[in-house]
Amino acid sequence: MAPKQVARLRLDRFLAGQLSGHSRARLQQLIRARFVRLNGQAARPRDLVHAGDEIELTEPPLEKIDNQPEHIPLEILFEDDDLIVISKPAGLVVHPGAGHREHTLVNALLHHCPILSGIGGKERPGIVHRLDKETSGCLVIAKNDQAHRRLSIQFAARTVEKIYLALVTGKLRKTAGVIEERIGRHPVDRQRMSVTSSRGRAAKTEYRVVSSSDKMSLVECQLHTGRTHQIRVHLHHLGHPVLGDKLYAPKSAKDYPRQMLHAWKLGFQHPRTGEWKSFAAPLPNDFTDAMRSIGLSRLNLGGEAAFI
Predict the structure, then answer these.
(1) Is the dihedral of CA 262, 177, 253, 195 positive or negative?
(2) Which pLDDT tens digit goes with each residue over 217-233?
(3) Can you tell me whether residue 298 is helix, strand or coil?
(4) Reduced to 3 states, what is the DSSP secondary structure of residue 108?
(5) Domain boundary assignment for the chain
(6) Which residues pair with 263 in a beta bridge?
(7) Between the CA of residue 118 and those of 121, 150, 209, 266, 300, what are the distances in Å?
(8) Contact 70, 51 (CB under 8 A)
């Protein structure tokens, strides 16, 4: 039963505050799948909770993984009994979905490690977070349900360190700054996200220009939230979209093999030991080739030298 001090919170927010073992995203999935009832009725994530309301949550049975293992090479940065951290190549879809039933990261993971967390359901075993198909870089995968829950809590609490490198059009006016613009579905083009959405969700990106020319800049971005297309949308909003981005910078797409966005660093507390773990994914060849067009052969990224 909902207490008075949390009255008029959204249902998903209320449950996230009460259930430490579930991320808000997972709770939204359960609500939409009708595993949560509010006063005996099926509910929506945005439904408001009032004092005295009765809320019932039923955990669904774990679904059998039915994706087929495939021998797809993986660049593993770290692995133990609880998790795997990989450097995902550009062009690899993370999990099966419409139009991508095979040749995904999940298929590769099942070949490498048949036992993965089942919390994400049969389509997404082990998948705690995602990267766009064309984005390269660090990704963590859970091998068991306990690791999955504890990692999900960190992502939901925004305590995970997520640092990206992006090559963008033009030269930024400010060398560093913070973008705090709400992000939601574009009102006309439903494939795109937009900062102008009246129903957008809070989003925060901190950025620093590493190097630039008149035509392009290399920008380091730290995500403080995890909205869909967040870096791509925020940089587009500044007037400097990611090079090669077919959605937000279509004019540059013909000159680059993919969107020039790399999930460079990932840091989090180990779900079992509590130890802080930090990983860096090497820069891919297509990214370094594009960087050379700015005249860069050596970088200093937060005190770390990178040779390309």
Answers:
(1) positive
(2) 999 999 999 898 999 99
(3) strand
(4) helix
(5) 4-57, 76-157, 161-307
(6) 137, 164
(7) 6, 14, 40, 23, 40
(8) no
Is residue 132 part of the annotated active site? The answer reads yes
Fold: same for 76-157 and 161-307:
yes
CATH number of 76-157: 3.30.2350.10
CA distances from 19 to 22, 56, 149, 272, 303 (A): 6, 12, 11, 19, 39
What is the spatial distance between Cα 276 and Cα 78, in angstroms, rounded to a whole number?
Answer: 13
CA–CA separation, 270 and 273 (whole Å):
6
CATH superfamily of 4-57: RNA-binding S4 domain (3.10.290.10)
Strand partners for 226 = none
Helix boundaries (H) for 169-267 = 230-237, 250-253
Q: What is the pTM of this model?
A: 0.79
pLDDT in tens, 72-96: 999 999 999 999 999 999 999 987 7
The tokens describing 260, both together, are 């020039």
Q: Which residues of the chain have pLDDT under 70?
A: 1-7, 20-23, 60-67, 97-101, 120-123, 197-198, 294, 296-308
Q: Among the options 12, 47, 82, 132, which is catalytic?
A: 132
Query: Whose CA is closest to 231, among 196, 263, 278, 191?
Result: 263
Looking at domain 161-307, its CATH superfamily turns out to be: Pseudouridine synthase (3.30.2350.10)
- The residues near 98 (Cβ < 8 Å, ≥ 6 apart) are none
Distance between CA atoms of residues 212 and 175, nearest Å: 10
